[in-house]
Design a protein that fits this description.
Distance between the termini of chain A: 79 Å
Strand order of the largest sheet of chain B: 1-2
Number of strands of chain A: 9
Structural class of chain A: alpha+beta
Largest interface: A-B, 34 and 42 residues
Strand content of chain A: 15-25%
Largest sheet of chain A: 3 strands, antiparallel
Number of helices of chain B: 18
Strand order of the largest sheet of chain A: 1-9-8
Oligomer: heterodimer
Order of helices and strands of chain A: HHEEEHEEEEEE
Structural class of chain B: mainly alpha
Largest sheet of chain B: 2 strands, antiparallel
Helix content of chain B: 55-70%
Shape of chain B: globular
Radius of gyration of chain A: 26 Å
Order of helices and strands of chain B: HHEHHHHHHHEHHHHHHHHH
Strand content of chain B: under 5%
Number of helices of chain A: 3
Chain lengths: 198, 470
């Protein structure tokens, strides 16, 4: 073996055919990997949903399902809205400037909503996707700071959010709760998933 | 040309003739001798050495019970939960098969953690057993994948939200994360597509890899020979051997150790069957109570925690907050400073250390703590692969290490258990602080091992294994 001369012509062909084979192998892998991506049916299931908020009393929350995710509609009391002010120093991103879950322009305000009273947000923690629990009751309680003004606590890793879905500092979650595209069809109906002017 | 044919001796029985016929075509006798009747294992094994064979038994239990569960289970988001309840209530003896499988999952981790700890204290990963250790770590990774994906299948609340959290871990990777998570889920949320692919991985793909790794683990082990509690090589060039070249300090695996292992197995099965029959949920540790509620994508259970065997790593994930990242930046800065002041290498190398440290600090601050939590959790497992090259102690076994090394190992084990406990509990400020200290110790234990393992005066290692006949 070792005393034989290298046949350069043969080696070139071996390299060329191996490369061609590798290209074929990669090309074959493409359809297999593609099957992992969402199917056409899964993509089609993302339509907008309507929510009727006429029965929602101040201080209450309702949940609607949009794209398999819980969307919360919270009707905040005047006291709760008042408590949102003056906590900017404790929040990670008080003005919703981060781009990971861009906040729509119409919700880029201190109450993060179109109408101050109603907060519409995706109830999925920006950390690892758990759904935070309601902690509307103000005051000291387990897992929460003593100056708690009401908000949400993620049961998985302890991230806390205020009643505008803004995340507190030094918690696992980096982002505020996502505000989905939404619009008012009337005073009592919200369309979640679309915000184009009709 | 085929190898030379052997003939059975004249007057041999039918059995021997058949074996000769097979041996001429397949190395049956050769394999039996190499791996059992003439595989010489050190004669000074202690009870720590039962967990390898126990792991093999548990693997068989999982495969057999798994095959039977698949006959009744439906991998469909609308049917899965009910089909598991159907197995539990309507399939004759289905509850037993299912409890064996769920208890087997936890038993697997108990046995494998003890097996790994044995390797850790006796230096069983040291040259020439690096590949034995690495294949073993690969098996551990496969087991984690099996356990995680299998846990989704009952489609209870814990299944659903556990999968949601872990899949979202991948979404924390910068740039490609969200697409990667989408690729894993196959949908915008954990759903039917996710369940089906996890089922496929759980019953086909990962078990195939796992079995391959188990074979590689055993082949590599039998190539280099087993280590022992003294860390003394029984097959080395200096080791005493008999006239046939067999090690004097070794004994054929079969029948000596097979009998030992069967005895250990009977003790193991007493515990295993007690749990299966009398406490299959084991107080919520083996089967979490929230998993008896069907998956609800709109409501996360008030307290979610992974099953106990993942909690040490889960604690490390939770411990990585912004404060922790700042501490890490401080530690890297301090380490770089120490390297520059005390390091015995040239100016260029010192500059390189500074540049790398600065780059690491920059990256730590630029990406979210969430991403680093994922890195810490993954790193805690991946770091095990490098253990053979981190340990620079002149002796293998803990028996001959300086006494204070035992305390280091003890603290390591205590922190691992504490991290495991904290991972089960809801997050608290003090718990997070303890988990942060534990995480730092865990990584310090491994990353500083090249230095601390060399410190102190080891005791004299005997030429032969210590063994007292009984």
């Amino acid at each position: 073996m070792s005393d034989q001369q290298v046949d350069h012509g043969k080696r070139t062909w071996l390299i060329a055919t191996s490369c061609a084979g590798a290209v074929g192998g990669v090309a074959t892998a493409v359809p297999f990997v593609s099957t992992f991506t969402p199917s056409e049916r899964a993509k089609a299931a993302g339509a907008a949903v309507e929510a009727d908020i006429s029965g929602l009393k101040p201080g209450e929350k309702m949940t609607v399902e949009w794209r398999g995710k819980p969307v919360w509609i919270v009707r905040r009391t005047p006291e709760q809205l008042e408590a949102l002010k003056g906590t900017d120093g404790q929040l990670a991103d008080p003005n919703s400037d981060r781009k990971a879950y861009p906040t729509p322009e119409y919700a880029k305000n201190p109450h993060r909503s179109i109408k101050p009273e109603y907060f519409v947000g995706v109830g999925i923690c920006s950390h690892l996707g758990c759904s935070p629990s309601d902690k509307f009751q103000a005051g000291p309680q387990p897992s929460l700071p003593d100056d708690w003004h009401g908000g949400f606590l993620c049961p998985c890793h302890g991230s806390t959010f205020d009643l505008a879905g803004r995340v507190f500092k030094n918690k696992p979650a980096p982002d505020n709760l996502e505000v989905p595209p939404h619009m008012y069809l009337s005073d009592a109906k919200i369309l979640i998933g679309e915000d184009k002017k009709a | 040309m085929a190898a030379e044919f052997k003939e059975a001796p004249a007057g041999a029985g039918a059995g021997e003739k058949l074996l000769t016929w097979v041996d001429n075509r397949f190395p049956a006798s050769k394999l039996y001798k190499e791996h059992l009747s003439e595989y010489y294992a050190p004669k000074n094994f202690n009870w720590w050495y039962i967990f390898g064979s126990l792991a093999l038994v548990v693997l068989v239990i999982q495969i057999v019970t798994g095959i039977f569960l698949v006959m009744h289970y439906k991998p469909d988001a609308t049917l899965a939960f009910a089909s598991v309840e159907y197995i539990m209530r309507d399939v004759p003896w289905g509850w037993l098969i299912r409890y064996m499988h769920s208890t087997g999952a936890s038993a697997f981790f108990v046995v494998v953690y003890l097996h790994m700890f044995r390797g850790l204290i006796y230096g069983s990963y040291r040259k020439p057993r690096e590949l034995v250790w690495i294949f073993g770590c690969g098996i551990f990774l496969c087991l984690m994948a099996e356990a995680f994906m299998g846990y989704l299948l009952p489609w209870g609340q814990m299944s659903y939200w556990g999968a949601q959290v872990i899949v979202n871990l991948f979404a924390a990777v910068p740039f490609v994360g969200p697409d990667l998570a989408l690729l894993i889920r196959g949908d915008f949320v954990v759903g039917d597509a996710t369940l089906n692919r996890f089922f496929s991985f759980h019953v086909i793909a990962v078990p195939l890899v796992l079995l391959g790794l188990v074979v590689a683990h055993i082949i590599a082990l039998h190539e280099v020979g087993s280590n022992n509690p003294d860390g003394v090589e029984i097959k080395g060039p200096k080791a005493p051997k008999d006239a046939k070249g067999h090690p004097l300090d070794g004994v054929p695996f079969h029948p000596y150790y097979t009998v030992h292992d069967i005895y250990a197995l009977s003790l193991f099965l007493i515990v295993f069957t007690s749990i299966v029959f009398f406490a299959p949920e084991l107080g919520g540790y083996f089967l979490e109570y929230n998993n008896f509620i069907p998956a609800d994508p709109l409501k996360t259970p008030a307290h979610i925690a992974p099953v106990w065997y993942f909690t040490p790593f889960y604690s490390m994930l939770r411990a990585t907050t912004d404060t922790m990242v700042n501490v890490l930046v401080g530690i890297i800065g301090l380490g770089a400073l120490l390297a520059v002041i005390k390091g015995s290498f040239g100016g260029k190398a010192k500059l390189a250390v500074l540049v790398i440290a600065a780059a690491a600090c920059f990256l730590l601050k630029i990406f979210d703590a969430k991403f680093w939590g994922v890195v810490v959790m993954g790193g805690a497992v991946v770091i095990l692969f490098f253990l053979p090259w981190l340990d620079h102690s002149p002796v293998k076994s803990i028996r001959y290490r300086p006494d204070w090394h035992k305390y280091v190992y003890t603290v390591f084990v205590v922190f691992f258990l504490v991290l495991g406990y904290l991972g089960i509990q809801p997050p608290t400020d003090i718990g997070t602080l303890i988990a942060q200290v534990g995480t730092l110790f865990y990584f310090g234990f491994f990353l500083l091992m090249p230095w601390w393992s060399k410190l102190g005066t080891p005791k004299a290692v005997p030429d032969r294994v210590t063994f007292h006949a009984h």
